[in-house]
Sequence to fold (228 residues):
Amino acid sequence: MLCLYTVFGMELRMTSTFPSISISTDRLVLRPFDMADVPAYIEMMNDELVTAWTDAPYPYTQVDAERWVRRIAPAERTQGNGIVFAVTEFLTQRLVGSVRLLNTDRRTLATEVRYITAPWARGEGYATESVLALAEWLFRDQGFERIELRTPAGNTASQQVAQKLGCISEGVLRNARIARTRTENGTDGGWTDIRTDLIVWGLLPEDLEGVAEQLADAGGYGTYNDWD
Fold:
């Protein structure tokens, strides 16, 4: 809902929120997280590639997961910043990833998307499929005009997702993200922070024209490890 208030003769536009919904594709269901997802979510977030390319706590604990499901993920929507989806297989209902919108700007009708694929579900093209479904919903039903992706320079799998979706590379933000790498004595479980560039990708409604058909003609959403 969009609320308007007037203060000293000036109209203040309060932030609106995305609806609480689920989105289905041929293979996937994008839905809000629930407590039944916690065990699989903990396992996914403790994967080494997820640790390397995200700023999630490590090790990722039961407390972290419950806080995410109960408070952080729902607040993204209710506070107007974005929306968070658990990505599950349609047939098995197994958690295979997550996709979220954040940094949403209602004035410019623009938002940023981030995605993670669980290690047991990589190679199936689930990130491409889920982000495509989310983008189609945003452009068609929510009237948005721009989606932005920011992929670390070393995360080539994430860059492939952007390319398959028809995103346009718009530039590089130098030294803009903190990633993590194993310490020299990797057996001790240690990690150290490193700086990395971010490649900025833009996706507009017209960029999606024909993308679904092209993916179908190419044999589907891909078989590379589109983890994040």
Q: What stands out?
A: The radius of gyration is 18 Å. The chain has a mean pLDDT of 90.
